[in-house]
Design goal:
Blueprint lengths: L1 H19 L3 H25 L10 H30 L4 H4 L2 H6 L4 H7 L7 H18 L5 H27 L11 H8 L10 H10 L2 H13 L4 H28 L6
Helix pairs in contact: 2-3, 2-7, 3-6, 3-7, 3-8, 3-11, 8-11, 8-12
Length: about 260
């Protein structure tokens, strides 16, 4: 474990040095982050200026949902996305044949392709997300109990695990068909996670909850923090996220076994 933490530190340091070399990217990323934040806040303010609640969600709880959505998006941009896209994305290592060098490195391959590339400027999004969450909690006007915080942190970790598992699974599918970028499937669907699942038709809620679970990633932690999450759904979310992680890991390792060297 200590060895892996040291490796993550080195990966972060190397990636940070590469990003700092292009300082103009900081201002571009800052502008993008501000626009993303303002767009999300403005849409909620417009909606809740007309109504007090939507399917049981008031403004504070909707802001919590937005904050969690921004938080997961920030973590995806920070390391999950860049690392996996370097293998399965456009011009990734599977396409170019350079994955051979990754296979030769003496470290767990799933760990390596999950943590080796970081985008330092995504920390801006992370700060904005935490700011939205803090503001939403203050707007709620009620103190949070220890149990509520535990439920929130547990479901938030489950959401992060689900996001990673989904991206890992879609990335692993490239081993079977390198001509199709499967990660694009989740890109558009993840946009739907910024709104409560209750506003969507039942068939779409089913897909976004149990098939491509972007709804579980954001809605469940938001319900946990606002105190509306049922114990049954809490347990199901934890079990489902762990199962999804195990399943995605198995799929990735089977993909590794299927991979044929570019030099063979």
């Amino acid at each position: 474990m200590l060895h892996h933490l040291k490796l993550i530190g080195q990966f972060f340091k190397i990636s940070a040095q590469a990003e700092i070399a292009y300082r103009a990217n900081f201002f571009i990323r800052l502008l993008y982050s501000v626009l993303n934040l303002v767009t999300g806040l403005f849409s909620l303010l417009v909606i809740f200026n007309q109504v007090e609640t939507i399917k049981g969600w008031d403004l504070p709880s909707a802001l919590i949902l937005l904050g969690i959505y921004l938080l997961l998006g920030a973590l995806r941009s920070l390391f999950i996305g860049p690392s996996l896209e370097s293998v399965a994305g456009m011009d990734g290592e599977i396409w170019t044949g350079t994955f051979d060098f990754t296979m030769l490195r003496p470290v767990d391959k799933q760990f390596l392709v999950s943590f080796r590339y970081w985008r330092l400027f995504a920390l801006i999004d992370l700060i904005f997300a935490l700011g939205v969450l803090v503001y939403a909690i203050v707007l709620m006007g009620t103190p949070l109990s220890i149990l509520t915080l535990i439920h929130f942190l547990a479901t938030l970790m489950a959401g992060i695990l689900l996001l990673y598992a989904a991206l890992l699974a879609f990335s692993a599918l490239v081993f079977w068909n390198s001509g199709f970028l499967f990660t694009w499937v989740i890109n558009d669907l993840f946009q739907l996670a910024r709104y409560p699942m209750g506003i969507y038709p039942q068939w779409l809620r089913l897909i976004l909850t149990w098939i491509i679970p972007v709804g579980l990633m954001t809605t469940i932690p938001a319900q946990a923090l606002s105190g509306t999450l049922s114990p049954t759904m809490f347990i199901l979310t934890i079990i489902f996220s762990v199962g999804a992680f195990i399943g995605a890991s198995i799929l990735f390792r089977r993909g590794l076994q299927k991979y044929s060297s570019a030099s063979s």
